[in-house]
Amino acid sequence: MLHLVAFLLHCLPLAMGHYDICKSWVTTDDGPSWEFYACQPKAMRMKDYVTVRVDPPGVTCGDPPERFCTHENPYLCSDECDASTPDLAHPPKLMFDKEDEGLATYWQSMTWSRYPEPLLANITLSWNKSIELTDDIVVTFEYGRPTIMMLEKSLDNGRTWHPYQYYADDCMEAFGMPARRVRDLSTTSANRIICTEEYSRWAGSKKEKNVRLEVRDRFAIFAGQDLRNMDNLYTRLESAKGLKDFFTMTDLRMRLLRPALGGTYVQRENLYKYFYAVSNIEVTGRCKCNLHANLCSFKEGSLQCECEHNTTGQDCGKCKKNFRTRSWRAGSYLPLPNGSPNACAAAGSVFGNCECYGHSNRCSYIDFLNVVTCVSCKHNTRGQHCQHCRLGFYRNGSAELDDENVCIECNCNQIGSLHDRCNETGYCECREGASGPKCDDCLPNYYWRQGCFPNVCDEELLICQNGGTCYQNQRCICPAGYKGVLCEQSKCDSDNKACNSASSTYLSLTLFLISALILQLRRLLDF
Ligand SMILES: *[C@@H]1O[C@H](CO)[C@@H](O)[C@H](O)[C@H]1NC(C)=O
Ligand SMILES: *[C@@H]1O[C@H](CO)[C@@H](O)[C@H](O)[C@H]1NC(C)=O
Ligand SMILES: *[C@@H]1O[C@H](CO)[C@@H](O)[C@H](O)[C@H]1NC(C)=O
Ligand SMILES: *[C@@H]1O[C@H](CO)[C@@H](O)[C@H](O)[C@H]1NC(C)=O
Ligand SMILES: *[C@@H]1O[C@H](CO)[C@@H](O)[C@H](O)[C@H]1NC(C)=O
Ligand SMILES: [Ca+2]
């Protein structure tokens, strides 16, 4: 019995208890029926489902075979890496295998023989599925931890990447960031991206092998040190902006930027002791199923949520066909303890048969028209069935009507276009002189300046005369002595007096002005 209690206590934080059933058959006064709850799959060892890629392609050791030594034994370089000999090869898959007690198997890079060129390697893990971390990521390095590395993650299968955590023996020097520890973060900074020095300092290659991304410590900010108050964590995950996403990813990339040095500087005469060796990457997490599934299975090489609540998709991210009366919503951890399933509803279950293509949660009966219509169409749609796009938006012809992004903003240039509307292919109606789909360009022989205006001058027909230069098609900058739109007029032409040079004109003009001024002053003083 005591054993069992100890076991349960041990498992509690990892399993995180609740939300493990999606529905149950209950008997009420009205008879038996299904009751639905928010639900999520159990945490798993995610390394079992990952595909890995190591870059650059030739960075794995052993091709050609290479000798290496260790920091503890720097001059006994008898170890060998040979990709063609199974016993001596160190391929990437050894970062994810099951290890017999005491016998580490590891991926290893080539040595830093090209010093001072940096020794760089990327290890990219891809799940082709959104997953949510439930425990620390732990990367185990044999022969010493890197002195500089960073983690990046992607939420969109590797299309875009974001920094996740920085690691260095000197954060300021390596990344220009002050060193921080997760333990010092507060409730408002729980999803801050930090640089830590805790896992990069030399402490002997056998003693300190692990580099962590601390998930538990971040959970503990809300749930307390032993993660007892999970209710508070779930409440925060639901309400704090960006917090859930912080623990979510589809891909993880480790960028190894400088290997263990075993001291303060690199010994050029023995570069065979500098390299990376990773024996294990532990990622504990669950499939992200938007609280609509409690099972996640590995099918055809990919993880896939087994969706309930009439949802579908890899992450249960949309409603099944014919269940789109309401727009799709993720389940919610709240209210505690069972959450809200936010299930998709069958067409016809609300107000007869009013289809809203998933853009509205509500239908309303309009008495005098005797019609049922969708209320507050979202996603920039409008119409009785939310089947049209709002003004200023156009329909994406290749998207289904129930796609959240079916209406695309016209984005007409406010100055260049006549109005906000555009045609079915997104073309706006342009004012005179403007062109381009959004009317943000000018036709030839027009220039842009808060709208399109006909060129005043150019290099072809409207050439500035008498050595004038054309300024941005807007005006001619005339040399002294000439004026007119194209500098075509000599200033002397209009004077009756013959003027010899421009400067004499200016001089006489200046003299005239000064005398006029003196005259004015005199009048004022006399007054
Ligand atoms: C590692 O990935 C980054 C992008 O995240 C890229 O800029 C860099 O060149 C890659 N390094 C190597 C060694 O492939
Ligand atoms: C990723 O998962 C999707 C959905 O399960 C699947 O259709 C696709 O083939 C997978 N892609 C790869 C590269 O495995
Ligand atoms: C999903 O649809 C089925 C079939 O119509 C129905 O029996 C079930 O109750 C629905 N589930 C939810 C959560 O609405
Ligand atoms: C239109 O929808 C299709 C299918 O969903 C999508 O691939 C495409 O990117 C969309 N086009 C635009 C301009 O958003
Ligand atoms: C939209 O306008 C552009 C430019 O005037 C035109 O080429 C295109 O054919 C129009 N598309 C439709 C569907 O009318
Ligand atoms: Ca291993």
What does this structure look like?
With 527 residues, the protein is α+β, with helices and mostly antiparallel strands. Helix content is 13%, strand content 28%. The strands form 14 sheets. Strands 3, 4, 8, 10, 11, 12, 14 and 16 form an eight-stranded mixed sheet that branches. Strands 7-15-9-13 form a four-stranded antiparallel sheet, with no helix packed on it. A two-stranded antiparallel sheet has the order 1-2. Helix 3 packs across helix 4. The N terminus is likely disordered. The site of one 2-acetamido-2-deoxy-beta-D-glucopyranose (NAG) has 5 residues, from strand 18.
Radius of gyration equals 36 Å
Helix-and-strand structural type = alpha+beta
Question: Beta-strand percentage?
Answer: 25-35%
> What is the helical fraction, as a range of percent?
10-25%
Average of pLDDT: 88
Give the N-terminus to C-terminus distance in angstroms: 115 Å
Would you identify the regions where 5 or more consecutive residues have pLDDT less than 50? Answer: 1-16, 502-512
Name the overall outline. Answer: flat
* Count of helical regions: 7
Q: Which ions and ligands are bound to the chains?
A: 2-acetamido-2-deoxy-beta-D-glucopyranose, calcium ion
**Secondary structure tally: strands:** 36
Largest sheet: 8 strands, mixed
Task: Describe what is shown at a glance.
With 527 residues, this protein is of the alpha+beta class. The chain is built from seven helices and 36 strands.
